[in-house]
Amino acid sequence: MSRTAVSTLLLVASLFAVTAQAAGTPVPALGVAWYPEQWPEQQWAPDLKLMQAAGVRMVRIGEFGWTAMEPREGVYTLDWMERAIAAAAAHQMVVVIGTPTDAPPAWMSQRYPEILRLDENGRPLRHGARRHFSYTSAKYREFCRLIVEQMARRFGNNPNVVGWQIGNEYADDSTDPDAVRLYHDYLKNKYGTIENLNQQWATAYWSQTYDRWDQIPLGTGHGNPGLLLEYKRFVTTQWRAFQKNQIDAIRLYAPKRQFITTNLGGLGWANRYNRTDISADLDLITWDAYVGQGHNEPYRMGATHDLVRGWKRQNFWVMEIQPGFVDWAGVSNSLDPGETRAMVWQAVGHGAEAVAFWQWRSALNGQEQYHGCLIGPDGTPLPFYAEAKQIGADFAKAAAAIQGTAPVSQVAILHDYDSRWAIDIHRQSNRYDQIEVLLGYYRPLKDLTQSVDIIDPRAPLESYQMLFAPSLNVIPEELGRRLRAYVEAGGHLVLGPRSGMKDEYNSLDIRRQPGPLVPALGARVEQFYPLLEDVPVQGAWGSGKATIWAETLAPRPGTETTLTYGEGNGWLTGHPAAVTKTLGKGRITYIGALLDAPLMRAAVKSLLDTTGLRPRVLAVPEGVEVNRRVGNGREVYVLVNHSPRAAKVTLAGPMRDVLNGGEIREAAMGPYGVVVATPAR
Ligand code: GAL
After folding, report:
1. Could you read off the pLDDT of 9-45 as tens digits, one per residue?
2. Is 163 helix (H, G, I), strand (E, B) or coil?
3. Of 320, 353, 504, 625, which residue is the catalytic one?
């Protein structure tokens, strides 16, 4: 494996492709969610005129508009949509069409109650909100296919349509009879025999042994950990099938030039289904980046963009971002003036190719009247409009610098849905928050390398000099082999607590932690301990506290101890907390405890040094984030000041100030300021 910075850069750049951006979409593009069906048609042109003046280049339409498209069963009325697309085009905007399948019409809910979602208690949802459909209902999928085919036949060749968004933020599973039938088919297909399933789930426990597939309950509440984990995988297959049904309908008529996406919600981290798997069938990943109450948390938001970029290992779109504020938080406060712009540029720095506001204008009635938007009920600009307009102007200036570039990282964090689920199924400590654990690694890594990928363990690993696996609870044999091969070839793998405890069926690994990697590490975990109180820990990385979770390790000769527990908890005192070992051309490290922030930073710094990783970083004051995108022989820096105080950054050399023009050696940023800079030639 090559370990030079240049070859890594080239390799990663080739693996981490820029998106398949549809022809005709500017990069970066500013967009808005527009619901023309909610307004009299005379209102369209004045709205579009204001959008155009703000630099909006993309509108998403159609989402939730099923009743306007099929007012009665089998009667399709798409003329209005054609006129809306033409009107947008006349204002220099491309269109993404949303399929309306998140909100089936009232006639359907009434005439075909089998399309309704049943909750975990078997109760059907009522009409009047959205997401009242069952994702597994065969009848509902048929209705979806029919409407989407009509739309694709009509707009698949429309040159102003650049892409399709399926549904909206897939969320809830269902317990209807179709779901149960599909679930039993899934289990039969995966396990082959009921005896095999009984063995893998150790069902002798509590008389859970099954004689027939139809005895097996859905994994919606409490239950056997094997069953609960498998249910999550089943839910993933069903959302994927729900989506594929529409992809196939679109592709009957739509050329590849039109991308297919869905807007993933749940603040990015939601894990009701495996988002890497959902992404496999899509051309482009888009997600909805909301803050809700409070202010943007730059590390968390940045890590979320990196997570999203990792699902397909390519650039992405932010399909929805709040225009200042939302309507659903405890306190739906507004972000500060300029803070949304900083957030938008942060997204671009992390690989966004387009960012769209939800929404342009609130419907006069309906559940979301209070939400932030760009224009008011009278059709004239709200205060936030000016900030959006500045972003539009920014994007126009930055297009040449940004287009064709993507972030490049030398280190990656592994994020694994099986492990997320396995730990969530039984947390053992309600203080063990897996996202926080991941961010505990992410923060120092981002500071010290300025670019971090977050990837699925099944992704290609070779291009990374270091991999961090904060809570890789489930390590099946095959993954164990891949990780070992990665290390032997020269990589450095750092495992965090709870790693390698379970096999793919969520059964305890009889080798103890880290399961298949025990021989590679030359150590195993003797015992885990959720902590109520912090415990001192010290060693080669410095001293500090173990917090929330601690494991004792037993190294064999040849494996070095890097941290040891001090006095505190009698079970831990004097035992190794972290160990490391060279293997082949690489190294494997296991950190059995969560560490306080300063010690974590020292540990990460020391691990980077040991690996010989010396990333090029700009020294920045607290609150300023550095992002770098490269590609096509170009590089562009996106510096974002997330703080309400002014800040200065000395650049690596003379640079061109993309947004303000001129050459600069120092980036002077006001509160929430942004500097986009490319090396001066
Ligand atoms: C999103 C959803 C939008 C809108 C928005 C409000 O989750 O996709 O349709 O409801 O929230 O913040």
Report:
1. 433 333 444 554 566 778 999 999 999 999 999 999 9
2. strand
3. 320
**Could you read off the pLDDT of 259-293 as tens digits, one per residue?**
999 999 999 999 999 999 999 999 999 999 999 99
| Residue 73 backbone dihedrals phi, psi, to 5 degrees | -55, 125
Token pair 């939730």 is found at: 64
Helix (H, G, I), strand (E, B) or coil at 221: coil
What residue owns the CA closest to ligand 1's atom 6? Answer: 326
Task: Enumerate the β-bridge partners of residue 631.
Answer: 634
Do 102 and 144 lie in one domain? The reply is yes
> Which among 61, 358, 360 is the best mutation to test ligand 1's pocket, defined by most ligand atoms within 8 Å of the CB?
358
Report the CATH number at residue 297.
Answer: 3.20.20.80
Which atom of ligand 1 is closest in space to residue 322's alpha carbon?
A: 12
Same domain flag for 56 and 73:
yes
What is the distance between the alpha carbons of residues 8 and 519, in angstroms, rounded to a whole number? Answer: 29
Cα 181 to chain centroid distance, Å, stands at 30
Domain range for 631: 624-679
Any atom of ligand 1 within 6 Å of the Cβ of 326 = yes
Nearest protein CA to atom 12 of ligand 1, as residue: 326
pLDDT of residue 19: 57
Residue 31 confidence (pLDDT): 98
Q: Is 320 in the pocket of ligand 1 (CB under 6 A)?
A: yes
* 450 and 343 part of one domain: no
Please indicate, yes or no, whether residues 83 and 108 belong to a single structural domain of this protein: yes
Q: How far is CA 601 from the centre of its chain?
A: 24
Other C-beta atoms within 10 Å of 607: how many?
24
Q: With a cut of 50, which residues of the chain have pLDDT below it?
A: 1-17, 20
Among this protein's residues, is 149 annotated catalytic? no
Which tens digits make up the pLDDT trace of 387-425?
Answer: 999 999 999 999 999 999 999 999 999 999 999 999 999
Number of domains in the chain: 3
Residue 350, token pair as written in the block: 């992390």
Asked, for residue 86, whether it belongs to a domain, the answer is yes
Residue nearest to atom 3 of ligand 1 (CA): 358
Give the distance (Å) from ligand 1 centre to CA of residue 676: 30
371 lines ligand 1 (CB under 6 A): yes
What CATH number is attached to the domain comprising 519? 3.40.50.880
Catalytic annotation present for 436: no
CA of 164 to the centre of ligand 1 (A): 17
